[in-house]
Amino acid sequence: MWLCRLQSKVVINVFPSCINYESKLGAIMYSLEEAKRFSEHLLSIFSWRCLFLSAAAVVATFFCMLMKWTADYPMALIGTAVIFPIVFSINSAYIRREEALRHYARIKANLRSLYLVLGSWSGSSDDSHKVSLAQRIANPLFFIRNVITEPIDDLRENEPDVYHAFHDIAKIIDVRADHKKVTGAERSICKTYLNGVMGEFEELKHIFQYRTPRALQAFSDVFITVLPILYAPVFAAIALSIDNYYLAFFVPALFAFVLSSLDNIQADLEDPFDGIGVDDIVISAEVFLTSLQAQPNSAA
User: Fold this and answer.
1) For 6-65, how does the pLDDT look when each residue is reduced to its tens digit (9 = 90+)?
2) Angle CA(250)–CA(256)–CA(262) in degrees, nearest 5?
3) Which ranges of the chain would DSSP assign to H, the alpha helix?
């Protein structure tokens, strides 16, 4: 041990420049990766709608300046008609996403508990037997992913696969309980785990089915489209009063961009399973299956 420490000290003393170079290179690579991730997150809130609304607001402001149309609308209308509904929708979508994460975690925890208990009942250390059990225990997660990531019109077609997987696990519990002659309490524990998975799936399915109230979303969409143009006389009045045409075009473009970007954020959070937004939930069924197969149980 002391020889290894001496060798490491010698390497550090003899080649400090190499180590310093590698650390700097690693820091640069990390910074580039963070910059790339930040740019991807920033670009995720852009859309053609942002550009269209910004251009429409600029054109409407320019037209009002030419026609000398000015006005002084109350800015509170923006908060009432747009900001409050969007912020409410974003908060609601975020809460739903956090609830979905909790349900996903509980599904995995209950399935893993079932694997450990049923594996301890098998009395076999055969690897093929272990792999087969892990696959059958993880099957519900694969089918649940199909239900919540595919279009909602396919829900009724994909849903029976989940219940068939639940039925298969229930049969495994009964067959192994009868074979090992376990107590009723032990059998009940497994059924409780299975019931927990089924309950969490129903919660997850309802999050997938029912989203932000459609009327509220339609209300926000209408005013996000109308307000940048409706407020063109206000922007024209500001520009004419300070005689700054650059500001006259920048303010309405920024106004439209902010409103449409908030709407894009809300749309990305609306469905946490569609794989479009940067904050979506990824159901890693393959990773879960691999972790089960690599996990020792009492019989192995």
Assistant:
1) 444 444 444 444 445 556 666 666 566 666 665 666 666 777 888 888 899 999 988 888
2) 130
3) 2-14, 16-43, 48-67, 76-78, 84-122, 127-149, 155-180, 184-209, 214-230, 232-242, 245-270, 285-294
pLDDT single digits (tens) 165-221? 999 999 988 888 887 777 778 888 999 999 999 999 999 999 888 877 777 778 888
Contact predicate 53/259, CB 8 Å: yes
Rounded to whole angstroms, the Cα distance separating 223 from 217 reads 10
Reduced 3-state DSSP string for 216-249: HHHHHHHHHHHHHHHCHHHHHHHHHHHCCHHHHH
Residue 210's φ and ψ, nearest 5 degrees, are -110, 125
Q: Helices (DSSP H) in 150-213: which residue ranges?
A: 155-180, 184-209
Residue 236 contacts residue 59 (beta carbons within 8 Å): no
Residues 67-93 have pLDDT tens digits of 888 888 887 777 777 888 888 888 888
pTM over cut 0.85: no
User: What torsion, rounded to 10 degrees, do the Cα atoms 116, 118, 124, 127 define?
Assistant: -60
Which has the closest alpha carbon to 49: 173, 216, 228, 293? Answer: 228
Report residue 299's pLDDT band, with 50, 70 and 90 as the boundaries: very low
| Identity of residue 224 | I
Which residues contact residue 59 at a Cβ distance below 8 angstroms, ignoring those fewer than 6 apart? none
And the tokens for 25? 């290179």
Judge whether residue 1 has pLDDT over 80.
no
- C-alpha span between 200 and 223 (Å, rounded): 37
Residue-level length of the chain: 300
**Residue (of 209, 192, 220, 199) closest to 89 by Cα position:** 220
